[in-house]
Amino acid sequence: MHQLFRLVLGQKDLSKAGDLFSLDDAEIEDSLTEALEQIKVISSSLSSSSEEQ
Question: Which residue of 11, 35, 38, 42 is most buried, as measured by CB atoms within 10 A?
Fold first, then answer.
């Protein structure tokens, strides 16, 4: 996965999220599948934690 995806998704460093838009498509294409899986994990954990409240 591209380093910026790791920072934004893995470490939840949202200060770097805008930097993703500066990358060329070719730089992130190979990371998209893994990034989407990480987003699914994050969103499912957020929805289950909000259901517990």
Answer: 35
Enter the pTM of the model: 0.70
Tell me the two tokens of residue 48: 């289950």
Range of the domain at 29: 3-52
Burial class (CB in 10 A: 0-12, 13-18, 19+), 50: exposed
Element (H, E) at 50: helix 32-52
Query: Quick check: 40 and 7 in contact, CB under 8 A?
Result: no
| pLDDT tens column, 39-48 | 999 999 877 6
Average pLDDT, the chain: 88
